[in-house]
Hints:
This protein has 1411 residues and is mainly alpha-helical. It is 51% helix and 1% strand. The strands form three sheets. A two-stranded antiparallel ribbon has the order 1-2. A hairpin with a 7-residue loop joins strand 5 (1371-1374) and strand 6.
Amino acid sequence: MLQRPKPSDCEADLLREQEKFLASGEPAAANVIRRPDKRRGEAGGEEGGEHNRETEGRQRDVVTIEDLPDQLPSLTPAPPKKSRFKAGHVTFEDEDAGERLDQHDMHVSAVLSRIVERDISSTPISLPDFTGMAFPKAMHRSETSSQAPPSSTVGKRSIFARQIAAQRLKEGKTPLHCAPEAAHTPEHREQNLPPETNMDTDDQPTAVSCLSRLSGQGLGASGSSGEPMRIHRENQAKLQAMSQSEILQEQKKLLCQLDPRLVDFVRSRKAQSVPSSASAAKQPRGKSSQEDFPLENMSGQSVSSGAAVPSQKPREVEMEREEEQPPPPAATEMDLLLKPQKEWVHMDKLEPEKLEWMRDLPAPKRKGTKEAMQARFDFAGTVVPSTEDLPTHSSRRAGYSLQELFLLSRSQLIQQRSLALGTLSNILSKARVGEYSSALKGRVVSTLLDAGLLFLLRFALDDGVEGVMSAAVHALKALLVCEEDEECLDCTFSWFRGLASFPLLPSAQEEEEEEEDAGLPENMKFTAKEKEERKSDHDVARQDVIKGLLKMKLLPRLRYILEVFRPSPRVVQDVLQILTRIARHSSSSATQVLECPRLMETVLSEFLPASWTAPSSSSPQSVYGLPLASAMKLLRVLATSGRHTCARLLNSLGVKERLPCLLSTEPGELLLEPSEALRTTTEAYRLWAVAAGYGQACTLYIDLYPSLAKTLQSVHTAVALSHPLGPLQLQRVLALLSLLTQVTHTAGCHRELQAGMVSSQGEECPPPPPVSWGHVSGLQPSLLAHLRGFVKNLDNPVQKDLSLAVIPAYLIYLEAYYHQLSRQNCFKPVETLQELERLASEVLLPLLSHHVVQGLMKNLKSSSVVCNAEASHQDPETTPSLPGLACPGWRSRPGPVAPSSPFPLLTALGLLLETITGIHKGLSSKFNGLLLAEPVIGYLRGCSQATPTLSHTRAWLVRHEHHLLYLLLRLAHRLVSIEPEVAKHASLYHQVALVLLPWLLPGSEYLGHELLSTIIFNKDFISEGHSGGPEAVELGELRLREETHHQPSPSLQTVGALLREACVQLPSIRGCFLTHLAHLEASVLTSRDALLGRGPWISAHLLPELTGPTVPSDWPFLPLVSLYERTGLSDGGGLEVEALPHGALQAVTHCLQWVLLLEVWREEALKVILPVAKLARLSCVFLCSSDLFMERPVQKLIWGLFRLLTRRSKLDPLDLDVPPPGLASFQDLYTALLSQYEAVSFGDRLFGCWVLLPLQRRYSATMRLAVFGEHVGMLRSLGVTLAQLSIPIERFTSPPEDSLPLLHLYFRSLVTGTLKPRWCPVLYVVTLSHVNTFIFSQDAAAQEVEAARHSMLRKIYYLTDKVLRSHLLLFRLPQQHSESGFDLYEQLPPIRERRLESVLKLQESRDGKAD
């Protein structure tokens, strides 16, 4: 049996194996054949075997392997290639295919059969000269050089042709097909034609002039041989008489007349006929050359250069401008580094063109940047400046473009593939941290994803070469994982609810209905899961990168890499981080990771073994068989996705047995590298804390209690931030405290669960955990002693940073302890109250008043995400299909997670105060200094005026800030009624509560419920209601009316009484809103369990999907909108009040009372609602029912709101062209309002004012056309007077109307009697003003408009209704306070009278001509 050669075999071994193979006579595994050369007539097969053997030394060996395709598969499913010549092949239906084949037959027989002899009957025959010799003299080649001068020949001529030319020159004749020599020599041409007149199509001076190709034959005139010269002289004379600009103008005109393709062809031929250096020097300054070669993108889409192009728009064609440089001189012998010697053969003649490559590089070209240039990158991913040149003889700029990297990544050379993928990895890493944001326009990551990067990396993962596969893993990790995001999440793990996180799902996008579903019944349409399965990989990846990778079977490939390839440590770490990022995507993705065959088994057996040996070095060549922190972190993230996933990890996969192996001993005894040992034990504590948060793995607490107690005793001595391992030791201590907090919460639920099992009577109830309150109560004294020590260490500069880092974790633990203590049977109120007083006086108050903490609080506003939503930091690149957390640089910039941030300390302190003040009410007043501190007051004012936006990049940090705001408001709720100093800022706290409610994210529903129940509708926070607020509003409005009694002003005479009634009804209003938010009850209960630490009832620590805030921003209108959706849409607004659902009238009244109160006293809280949205929501009052707006309490409130909304400060920002949220346009809503007015209004003045509001001149004419066109009948009942309308009439009449169709409708409604002053006073004045202005306008206008003016004016003059005639002709100005609403001239002004007379005379003259 022959063996394959081994790397250790020497040459003798190989020769020995060869002899054995030849002696055995076995057939070879591959046959070496020679491909026959058809041009030489060789045949394949067995024939010519001897000849083949003789010449096989000169032939190329070709190894054939079966089942190997000739071409590599394409990168992505690309569309079929289109032929550029297909459009030129035109076929006809009646065309014979045989004849077409004959026409295109290029065989020699077919070509020879079509040869036809040229007709030379009319061609003159030149006979040879007669000589006296019997035979002509034989010509010798040596005589040809003297027969004809080189200038008389055109190109390369035959010997016979040159002999004939020499003979004709001797006879004094011009050679055939040649012009006179003086006409085409380079010197003559250069003297007569200036260089600036030469077009781009001119040849070089060494080329033969076009005149040498003209002989003058065929011109049909005597002396035709001299005609070309005459034409040439005429052209020269014209050129010399023209100026430079005229020459260029004629040149442009000539180029415009020629076919552009012909011009391009001639220019391309010119570029090919001259050397590159000469063409570059002759190129005009205005021309630009494109240096990059085109790339056929294998993904079917071009790699847009927009995201990687400095100073250009995205997807712009790259251009480069180079300044002119003279051509380099030809190489001489002096330029050579190595001089030729005489004894060298064939080196006696110097050939400069062959020595160009030995010259020195030219100086760097100065390249302008006015035109866009394509970005190029070096191997480290850094953008290469445009002025840097390549160290080669190439004219291309330095670096590689994205197109070139894509091309190299599919190269057949392994090194090129690895190099390209490594460069792409570096580019992605820099792009993810935002390094290109200032240098490039566009988004590099988005551009690469659009170009098919995902498919490129996925195919590269399948490469059989380990180096290429490793580079692909690095690039995929750079695309998916941001290490600083993960570090930031790890730092916040010990915060309040820090173990919970949002799924990194892309924002939900509305997808269009597929065509195959159109017209199908509901039961036959595809479900969402079926539609997802039917999508292609490209469509899925375009919307969601992680889903696209899962659909492309990424998990089995990663498992294969770990299990079979067993790559280097770096690749293993990258694979584990990729799996962690996939698990963070969603619970379904985490489930797929868990259920991938043999994936988790491989991770656990290879990277979390139960036993291992110490590595031989600090950087082992392989990490297989050693515990890895990244593998433990993967398990922790998987456990966060759900309690069932966590249970499977602990029990089915044996993680519970592996935790004691890591946590029962000190990190230094784990036979691991010290830093890796600390990271691994830290992640083990965190995984255990997540499991304990579900009430699982609590038996380990009992088993490992001695080890935990020993670790706690050494906290003060084990952590030193100055030590290189200090930060890792600190994270381990924080993870341990988080574990103890979760175990304490779980133990506190033991009694409740045990009582629930007794009273459940067969109903489903979680079993009580194995750990009870007695197991955890003994930890509190030691941890409290630790806290006292750390508070004292704040005075020590060395220990200050460490103390500030660990104090929040201790405070959160104490909050969990006292929160659960008050629910136990062993709770002793008196002793607990005394203990809390000692805690407050000895620990909390000194901590709060310490100068370090006070200095930290000054950073509150600068560290806030809410207050600094518009801050311009260097944000990293994020794409909608791949959301991230935007954490790069979080240590160096202000933020909630920065080392100088007070958020973790204040949140933990507020959480503890919320608990202990609930137990001991008397402690509340001791901490009023926290609320009255100047930094806190400034921070709350900033929050009350902020308008943060919702995104993944901010949501996870904003959630922690919401916790602090809620806790501060809860403390204010306890103090506002007992502390006068706190009560002074009650309106500020109420304003913050109002803006915080619509900010709350999914998972915080319980906080919103508590705000609504305790603060938002609390009369103590609405100080205006019991301190003369309503009276102040009335007095202020009365004073305003007295000062402006001559000007129209909105009246607020009833608002004061309405506000007093609203303040009395606050408890009922609260009940109304809580009832309409009852659909959130399940979410509120789930959120309550998570926030209060009720672990056994928590289903997952993964928060709900980030689809939007919990409560909509227009929640004050919720009862009104809800009633409209139930009755207005289904019944068309025709129901009477008695037919509405029970309590509907009361709910609408409470809703309007609350909106009125907010509009008057909390206007800032409603600024997030667009004015058009307010108007649209209040319009539901008229659309819900046929008579709801006529109810007395509703009508009073709507009148008050209408007068508030029509103030000048409110009318100016009201833009009805903006679609209200939830509606396609306001015009649609207005059409429904007009129909409802015609049907049920009965001329109601309130409804009439509401309908008149959108008819102001600055709004769209569409609504006015609807009133005077489709709904003209409503003019008879729209009896609102100008005094009742709180909108100035000038807003309806100015500027003059310019819509001619609308003016015709105005005029028709007046003259037909449809619009009368007693029926519709307001619109009567409006139409009078616009028609009067139109007919007497002197502005120049189109003929159609001028004819309409004349026609209207004549008709008005001949009106029989004298009153209307006088109103239209004598109208002066609208006057809102007059009885009629307008003023009239006593007689026509002279200018108007002349206008009228001119129109009438013009008509009379026309009539006379017609007669």
